[in-house]
Amino acid sequence: MTAQTTLPHSPVAAPSPAELLAFAHQAAADPVLIARLETLPDQRTWFALPGPVGSEAWVIGWPPGAETGWHDHGGSVGAFVTGAGSLHESSLAVPLPTSGWRTLELLPDLDRERDLPAGAGRAFGPNHLHQMVNPSATEHAVSVHVYYPPLPLIRRYRRRGRVMELKMVESPEQW
Fold it and tell me: Whole-prediction pTM value?
């Protein structure tokens, strides 16, 4: 009988939202990294970054007026920070169910609005639903986004007043 060596299993802890936000702040403050992004006049651009501890990260360029539409991050936690220009976030202050519905009527006073100039950002939990826009008519914006686990899907919504409708579910192959 021969002896076998067994290495102890050491699971890697998931990064916290605070760690994701710290990474996004550090990356967004790097002028060389931000300058690497090619910007186009009429469409968003991006490139991937290695994120901390198994997360995925993206540097995203926003031409004037670009927006995401309402969406969530498929249950991932994350963070984002504006590196150049300014962004505006609209979000809901209550988590929505992620399955079992196509249309919901939202209660009043759930909306939250944030202006995010260069250097500003936020972390968010697994039920975050929002839309982002570059409100400038003339200036590009650049931001850094990081997600853990890497995005398994994105649910896209249409909003009409207080009515939120699930429009589509996208898998990573679609973006």
Answer: 0.89
